[in-house]
Amino acid sequence: MAKILLEMKNITKTFPGVKALDNVNLKVEEGEIHALVGENGAGKSTLMNVLSGIYPYGSYEGDIIYNGEVCKFHHIKESEEKGIVIIHQELALIPYMTIGENMFLGNERGKKAAINWDETHGLAETYMRQVGLTESSRTLIKDIGVGKQQLVEIAKALAKNAKLLILDEPTSSLNESDSQALLDLLLQFKKKGLTCIIISHKLNEVSYVADKITVIRDGSTIETLTKGVDEFTEDRIIRGMVGREISDRFPKRPGVKIGETNMEVKNWTVYHPIYSERKVVDNVSLKVRKGEVVGISGLMGAGRTELAKSIFGRSYGSKISGQLLLGGREVHLKNARDAIAHKLAYVTEDRKGDGLILSNPIKINTTLANLGAVSNHGILDKDKEYAVAVEYKEKLHTKCPTVEQNVGNLSGGNQQKVLLAKWMFADPDVLILDEPTRGIDVGAKYEIYCIINDLVAAGKSVIMISSELPEVLGMSDRIYVMNEGKIAGELTKEEATQEKIMACILKSGKGE
Amino acid sequence: MDKAKLKDGIQKYTMIIVLVCVMLFFTWGTDGKILFPQNITNLISQNAYVFVLATGMLLCILTGGNIDLSVGSVVCFVGACGGVLMEIKGVPVGVAVVLMMLLGALIGAWQAFWIAFLRIPPFITTLSGMLVFRGLSNIVLGSKTLPIKSENFVRLFGGGADCYVPDFLGGGEGLNRVALAAGIIACAIYLFVTVRGHLNRKKKGYETGNVAVMYAKAAVICAVVMAVSYKLAQHKGIPTSLVWVLIVVLIYGYITSKTTIGRHFYAVGGNEKATKLSGINTDRVYFIAYMNMGFLSALAGMLTIARMTSAQPTYGQNYEMDAIGSCFIGGASAYGGVGTVPGVIVGAVLMGIINQGMSIMGTDQNKQKVVKGLVLLAAVIFDVVSKKKSSK
User: How far apart are CA A310 and CA B251, in angstroms?
Assistant: First the structure.
């Protein structure tokens, strides 16, 4: 048996009114990849914040034993000195600085009053090669993709001499192939003796990469599964996470009739808003019928979001050409307002960035896209607004004390429900959902799927853009595969498999 | 649970609690002089321009913590032009007033155009406006003071010695009956609206909230209104400038809390991208905020020259700071999206009381500035700290 690198004993952390962690125990062996799974709000991130000293010693009970000694971290710097490095879900990189500058931010090479830039960039590139980045370290962060940014974070951690690397949802914003590359990189580092703790919602990745899985539920450790000893399947993990069996991750929708075409896009081409010679969406044609869920699959950067936004009242791009038909008639939408008036809705991928007003209560967010329905000649009927918000809260089972609660204080899944409520209240015929379940837990995902089913059962059309293949496969009646701005393939529910989708992408990437 | 509610309540009404404490302090410090009817009247008429400007500034701040630095210069410029129109060109008062309003709106539109449609940062645009209109004021007035002799104008906008709503109810000596009557009517209307709203909600089956709290709030508001109107009645009645302030505050209070366009201001400040994708024309929201600021600056300009009975190229200096300070003390967020008209009024009153209290106590002007500066910082620190605590 290998040496225990880290042991967290009886950790209890209370916030005013809530016990976030209750007697949590975690043992991590040297050189293993240890996964922490649990629903949102189960306490995974809190536990990691305790470990890294973000919640200082004294603000929690219990002991942290690292490398044989009891640690009392007061500050994140102290844990980093010991080689415990945490990479947060939201990347902490500064877009207008170079890779090298970012990697040694707060850890500058040379003297305080005279930074040694040659050493900085030289060292940066050494570490970058280790994670497989071939860029110059003088490239600006904003010029590389999210996948590579994640790698820069890892290189940055290596530069800090990390022995125990903690990754919080490292793949949540990556596409399948980038995710795969990242996981393989972790496996490679494992061989060199690096220990990892990985927090993830993506159970297929967890079971692929992890040696042990610890399940946390409601602030307590439920169980630890070991590869080769325990059953290591996704269903087994889910059972631990939710405390019950979810027999079907994707609810069926029997008897939903697929009707006539609701929306059709023909030869849709969009150019980049700034680099106006770059085609982002290239001659795309697609259609969606009443009562149908159409999935759009593809890699990150395939142009899916750009397509959706440009359809939604030209909210993205320049030189847009092509035809948009709604209910059989061609329409020319000038802006988002126009799109909403034509019963189109676009539920954004980035709910915090451009979906919700986090500093405002649920009720204000719910009615924002359709203020006309709760007002009379521009005068708001606040009572009606309140009633509407309550109605949707109950319909979608949003968990919140009142609809006066600020959206920023809700969990990801509940925020997503508020966002859906907002667009459902706008009463659209066609809903474009962009990554509707990103970063939310299994239980909340299931509820979102049920909402989608209710929508199509009511005769609406849903276009679902998703990077998670199982979700696209499980929910869609028909699937479009996009790659490099083009439609790379169209698959029916019956013929679609993960392999076929990937094959479509690969073929179009090579061909033509 | 109750403790949390109490904490919530204290947080919500912090500035009011602070206001009460400050008033008590100055009542003690000035041996009650600050509560003399004359001083209450002065507090209102001296600060009329702050109320008006702060209300307009709130809209700008709501859009994302953006401020308008040009208001002081615009106040001065509009006042200067109005003075020239009335006193030199002999334009009738009514026409001059309309022209001044239009001029204000036009100046606002000029700045708003760059801010809203070309996205020039408001700080830069209005900094430019601050220089431009200060310079133009000097040019228009030839760097000299222009006395305003038009009595009608002065009386209408509340300057000089005799600018009160006439006591047509014939009170004679002692109490001004119009002031008292106005107070009573205001309370009656307020109570009527409160009760009707409550009954309406009940009838339609909406949630009604805590009835006791609602009526307690109404009682306190009515008590304050009655106290103020009693004080005014003891002096010379309602200053005409108060009428203008009330008009502005009521209209803008209504717009920000009860209309869709008001909602748009908050939405843009909260998350502009989300607002745009919700089908709201965000450019238009910016345009309205800054154009309106010009318009209200014009009104403040009229109040200023009427009060001073002259137009001078130095008027309006630091007015923007008074307005901005009132907004932030009154709970507007420096990041936008948060703030209310009543809050801003409380902020402005607080600033006014500190000013006046210290003046009565004979505190040196320079020390007054120090105190005001620290109060502003303290208010924002408090806001930021309390938010941090509540979010954790």
Answer: 39
